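Changelog-adjacent note: as of this version, every example in the card shows the full chain rather than a window. The one below runs 668 residues end to end.
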Amino acid sequence: MKKNAIKLALAGCAMAWVMYGCNVFEPLASKSSSDYQTLLVQGNKALNAGDYQTALNYYGKAMKKNPKGSEAYLFHAQALIALYKIDYNRINDEFKKADSVKGLPFLDANSTISNTDSLYFPVATAVRDLEHILRGRDTLWLDEDSSQFLAPDGDTASDGRITPSVARLDLGILSAVKALLAPIDLDGDLHVDSVCGDSLTPAQKAQICLKGDTSEVDRLNSMVRLTADVSFDTLDSKSVNGKELSNLPTDINAYIESMLGPLASAAYNLDSVRSSLQSHNQTSLSNDIAKTVTRVRDMSNFVGYMQYNDNVDDDYDRQLGKSDSVMRWHDFDRDHGIRYNYDDNSTDPDTIYTKQGAQKINYCDPGNIGHPLHRYRHPELYKTYKELETAYPKLEKDTSQNSRINLMKKGCKSLVDTLSHNPYLDARLTPTMSAQVKAVCDSISPVLKDAVSRPSRSDWVGGTPGIDEELLDGFDNDYDGITDEDSRNLQGNATQGFDDDNDAPLSKSMIGQPVTPMQWKDNNGNGCIDIDPVARPTVAGDSSTREFCVGTLEHRLHLARVANLVITNPEANLKEDSLQVYYTRGVETETDCIRQYNRYLDPAFRAKFKPTDKERDAACHFKDIWIAPIPPRSEWTGGVFGEDEEICGDLIDNDGDGWVDEDCGDHQ
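Full-length structure tokens:
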């Protein structure tokens, strides 16, 4: 056997702990006896001759002949890996490339359904084969405090000819690959398909393949966009936009969960063989694996912070001892943060304030919970990192470069650097001031102390900071170094009044006042809020009629085309024209709107209406925030547009903002 083959991080044949058989990337020979052994011998001959498909056929028959035979499962995985021309160098190069190139391994602009499936299918199948060997004999490590026993599945390969050590080494690296690609396999058939759900019943397909046949194609493209700016070696979520993944917010959890299991398996299986490698003078290989284990664990932790609407403090940043209720807040001043107290002397973000100390320094304090300047000005409100580590022992144990604490510190310092060169601030941070605030970044966490309560005039209206406190808006609302983590959406609870998709006409005049959830009736069943269903009757299911619905992109496109749209108002006989009467003007063309136009605009409407680029840009120059009064004779009967305006579970974008079933409410 070649020496460099052993160095592939998956080699097993030359090591003393290998009882029988080789690694999935290496040729092998086998002894014969009985029909089962004969099938193995025939498979080995074909494998060594390079006839991998024939070898697969023999091993498949052997697996059926003797389900308890561990060799057949290892050899089957090996033949499949060889058939698809996958070797350790290819895999290792991808992980090494991720050290210097943004984006996740195996996912880039060149990824297609075909080349992704040609990697995912053999890898996922090989993982299944190797796990079959371990079932009933081993555990899957989940984290420092828990593990999961791999229960037998009825015909587990338990003859003991292939040891767990051999299976784990291969399984570790293959699981890491599977973890990155598994979220694309929505229907769970171990393939990345151009047609999703062929093996499912129509009911199952409707539930799993939410975008129909192209669901897995869309997921692949979404994941490429989602992770394009993520650095695998130094994780940073500022460029992660959950909206790139799906227009159904709850779909994000499925993405996360499909990665966490394989990532945990990869870290455990790789780590479990390092000592064996060192004892066999494979120190260099052991060190390479240790680096991969660290990266995979970092990725697993990082992904785990992003759970959506689960009422759990996934990212370790809540006030302990408080109610576990989801935090409720409104961004009245629309600065993407959570204003701590509007009665504080820093209510105006454009005002310069003075801090007494060794010297008087002018600076702009946005007053948002967790903001570096708010921590600097009010350290008494926040836990130190030491206090946070005491509350969460896991945080203290994690000393990796992408640990939760380090993510908090890096996010804080990055923001200070941005403030120091922000032309929109009246007073830029001086070098001295920047150094002082960065010192806070290293000592004061963004987590409020347990005794801190909500002020009466605040964006924060209830619940516990840290529990599902983010908006899915592409901003780090709580300034803790992670964007869009712990996002929340209390479906069906309209009494609270939320704006989870940031499209409500909130203003400072509403501070301290209850925000009434929107109430409307879809009388004609077309899935949206008609402006005047009497004057403009619509047809259920006809997307082209959405051009007359409150909030929809179709309506904004219609207004961009029709300069003098007349809305019937029998009482005042008013004529209202142009987009600016109805919608909030953006500073520039809204990128989210362009994304919505490109990805979610109904093809039937696009074909019938045929919007021009000029109309698209005009429509997207206005946000989907409705500012006009409730139209007369509208299906909108009360409340604030943007607050709980969706119908839960209908899988229709009722308010036309590009999200499906967000801000769900009780429409009465």
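Structural remarks: The radius of gyration is 29 Å.
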